[in-house]
Amino acid sequence: MMEDVSLCEAWVQVSHCPVTGNEIKFSHMWKKIHQAFCEREIGSTRTEMTLSSRWKVLNKELGKWRNALAKAIDNHRSGENLSNEIIQAQMWFGATGQGKKSFNHTHCWEVVKTL
Questions:
Q1: Is the pLDDT higher at 110 or at 115?
Q2: Contact, 111 vs 8, CB < 8 A?
Q3: How far lies 80's CA from each of 23, 32, 76, 92, in Å?
Q4: DSSP letter assigned to residue 97
Q5: Source organism's superkingdom (predicted)?
Q6: How far is CA 28 from its chain centroid?
Q7: Mean pLDDT for the chain overall
Q8: Dist. CA 41–CA 3, nearest whole Å
Q9: For the chain, what is the radius of gyration of the CA atoms?
């Protein structure tokens, strides 16, 4: 769980860098993400490739969650609060996958939600 948060933080740091912006090449980007990740996770044995693979999984899940949450917010009814929207988003998130699972990456969502 903490490795996922560190990966998200490293990805945000590198991909939203005001100096390089979106001008950075893909391979160089993952070198920088790996470096930023290793600064957070001292002693990690993760490689650029394993981080990139993990990010693909996380990014897909975070995208599905963003869509489910947006749908819940769009369907907000008077008298409902954020808890109701989260519950509704969990239902829509589960309905989008074949395994009917719930969203388990709120720790990562907190890192990337404002992007």
A1: 110
A2: yes
A3: 43, 43, 7, 17
A4: S
A5: Eukaryota
A6: 20
A7: 87
A8: 7
A9: 16
- Structure tokens, 9: 């933080």
Structure tokens at 27: 């391979």
What tokens were used for 38?
A: 């290793």
CB-count exposure of residue 90 (10 Å: 0-12, 13-18, 19+): middle
Exposed/middle/buried for residue 109 (C-beta within 10 Å: 0-12, 13-18, 19+): middle
Residue written as token pair 């509704």: 88
Note the pLDDT of residue 99.
61
In the chain, the percentage of residues whose pLDDT exceeds 90 is 54
pTM: 0.84
